[in-house]
Amino acid sequence: CGSQTKDRPSSVQTKSKKTLARPGMKNIVLVEGVRTPFLLSGTTYAELMPHDLARAALQGLLNRTGIPKDSVDYIIYGTVIQEVKTSNVAREAALGAGFSDKIPAHTVTMACISSNQAMTSAVGLIAAGQCDAVVAGGVEFMSDVPIRHSRKMRKIMLALNRAKTLGQRLSLIGSIRMAHLAPELPAVAEFSTSETMGHSADRLAAAFGVSRLEQDEFALRSHSLAKKAQDEGLLQDVISFKVPGRDIVSKDNGIRPSSMEQMSKLRPAFVKPHGTVTAANSSFLTDGASAVLIMSEEKALAMGFKPKAYLRDFVYVSQDPKDQLLLGPTYGTPKALERAGLTLNDIDVFEFHEAFAGQIMANLKAMDSDWFAQTYMGRKTKVGVPPMEKFNLWGGSLSLGHPFGATGCRLVTTVAHRLQKEGGQYGLVAACAAGGQGHAMVIEAYPQ
């Protein structure tokens, strides 16, 4: 699985293990990753549209890399709740950011792993020899979501549009009832089970015996670590963004370290009265966008870039969306490690998506259970648990925020930055997503 590397001269690089380069396969690198500040929905971004945020992230990437606007071969964006007017938000944002109109762009959706899918699609295009440089990213804008008329009302309105005579129009208007006027709102719920994600998280926490105390402690950890990372200037992927008609925004605004006492006062948000998932230990509705530049190593070096990390093996997994909705990390982790020929002990940096504290804790318990591995995963032994001293050390989705479509790029860029800062060699990203799906990816530090 690749040759031994020479010892790397570096002040931080403490150990040198084998590299995951494979003979005959292109090395694919993360050159740079940026994101807009992640803001609570309904705050400073409230009057914008999703493509405005995506455009800001793309402009930030252009500014930071200085890559010529026609040197990118393809652009892919992930998003979950689509704005109807910009259904291919990748294209609209790319044009707005000033990229060449000759660059094709498409938009993908895969719930909370939409930008993971954008990145791995980029890896696929480069590996296949189609492209040398691809920009991937993601955006979510929860301050404004499409709200529809009811189906009956939509039918009447479409018929009105086709009606020829005044009589036909009056007859259709006369058929409208009060009940027809009730709107349809998008919900963070499973189509197949009609259960909201918070409800699923609460059931999952209960199934694995995760207490309210454990969840509140984990959420407090996330906010405290995020605050520390923000104060120390470690969140270097965040770019400043001048919001038209408002201030310049330069940092995430959902980071709020509380106290266990304050958190204990909150009522359950989903399963009442005995549930353990609350507003304080769940990720919040967030607006934000991210963008990364992914290239073949050859092309990156030829253009004079210093890559941040190699993107190595990755997997997508899928389970039952009723009882195992949020267990993607547990299923994805061993598969990604096996593909790379690594063990859990080889990983220096872990970045897992935090949808709910209960979901993270349930995954950690599932990963630590021989019974779960044998009963559900067809494995003889448990996956193993990431040590907390390597886990989400700069905060996570609970504190930094979770714009659905943008989080994947944040995770990968954070791993690259943490590997550089901490002198590790391998990082692992893992995330769960609606539909019972998940993603895991191994990232290798670029020699410093």
UniProtKB/TrEMBL annotation:
Pathway: Lipid metabolism; fatty acid beta-oxidation. GO terms for molecular function: acetyl-CoA C-acyltransferase activity; acetyl-CoA C-myristoyltransferase activity. Keywords: Acetylation, Acyltransferase, Endoplasmic reticulum, Fatty acid metabolism, Lipid metabolism, Membrane, Mitochondrion, Mitochondrion inner membrane, Mitochondrion outer membrane, Transferase, Transit peptide. It is an enzyme of class 2 (transferase). It holds the Pfam family Thiolase_C. GO terms for biological process: fatty acid beta-oxidation. SUPFAM superfamilies: Thiolase-like (SSF53901). It comes from the Eukaryota. Residues 28-298 form the Thiolase N-terminal domain. GO terms for cellular component: endoplasmic reticulum; mitochondrial fatty acid beta-oxidation multienzyme complex; mitochondrial inner membrane; mitochondrial outer membrane. Coiled coil: none annotated. It catalyses: octanoyl-CoA + acetyl-CoA = 3-oxodecanoyl-CoA + CoA; dodecanoyl-CoA + acetyl-CoA = 3-oxotetradecanoyl-CoA + CoA; an acyl-CoA + acetyl-CoA = a 3-oxoacyl-CoA + CoA; hexanoyl-CoA + acetyl-CoA = 3-oxooctanoyl-CoA + CoA. The active site is at 112 (acyl-thioester intermediate), 402 (proton acceptor), 432 (proton acceptor). Its EC number is 2.3.1.155, 2.3.1.16. InterPro entries: Thiolase, Thiolase-like, Thiolase_acyl_enz_int_AS, Thiolase_AS, Thiolase_C, Thiolase_CS, Thiolase_N. Residues 306-444 form the Thiolase C-terminal domain. Its main location: endoplasmic reticulum. It is found in: Endoplasmic reticulum; Mitochondrion inner membrane; Mitochondrion outer membrane. Belongs to the thiolase-like superfamily. Thiolase family. Mitochondrial trifunctional enzyme catalyzes the last three of the four reactions of the mitochondrial beta-oxidation pathway. The mitochondrial beta-oxidation pathway is the major energy-producing process in tissues and is performed through four consecutive reactions breaking down fatty acids into acetyl-CoA. Among the enzymes involved in this pathway, the trifunctional enzyme exhibits specificity for long-chain fatty acids. PANTHER family: ACETYL-COA C-ACYLTRANSFERASE, TRIFUNCTIONAL ENZYME SUBUNIT BETA, MITOCHONDRIAL. Heterotetramer of 2 alpha/HADHA and 2 beta/HADHB subunits; forms the mitochondrial trifunctional enzyme. Also purified as higher order heterooligomers including a 4 alpha/HADHA and 4 beta/HADHB heterooligomer which physiological significance remains unclear. The mitochondrial trifunctional enzyme interacts with MTLN. Interacts with RSAD2/viperin. This is Trifunctional enzyme subunit beta, mitochondrial.
